[in-house]
User: What shape does this take?
Amino acid sequence: MPEHFPGARGLKLSVTGGKLAGMRAHAITPILNVSDFNASVAWFERLGWRRLWDYGEPPTFGAVGSGACELFLCLDGQGGRDAGGAWMSIWVDDVDEVHQRCLDQGIDVILPPTDEPWGVREMHVRHPDGHVFRISRSAPHDHDHDHEHPHDHDHEHPHAH
Assistant: This one.
């Protein structure tokens, strides 16, 4: 039985005996290199996220979060910016609602909400340091998962643990 990431049609991960091969991670926290820590926190707050914690005076490292998701922000370190910035997908319940918030808050929307052929509705926003966020919602799909599935769907998932 192939595994798919949220909403992706036809993209498969290697499986062994019905379980994912190799390490079984329980969480991942991306670290973004930012040029202005406090301005980046403010940008995420405009997107609807909140400051979780910070370190240093003034802060040079910390986290922002939304729901169960968090990102670390690192001032002038740990990764690239501008053309070398990170791309990340954020799964939400309503892409169009997020799009309106971004317009209201003056956030740089580089792709308006679009129904993609791979089965997601997504939009793209650019952080001032060049990081791009693909804000997406899965189309309804019918496949099993052998992991906790934090994104919402309009249907139940039979999870075997």
Remarks:
- The domain at 29-138 is CATH 3.10.180.10 (2,3-Dihydroxybiphenyl 1,2-Dioxygenase; domain 1).
- Strands lie at 15-16, 19-20, 31-34, 50-55, 61-66, 69-75, 87-91, 108-115, 120-126, 132-138.
- The radius of gyration is 17 Å.
- Helices lie at 37-47, 95-105.
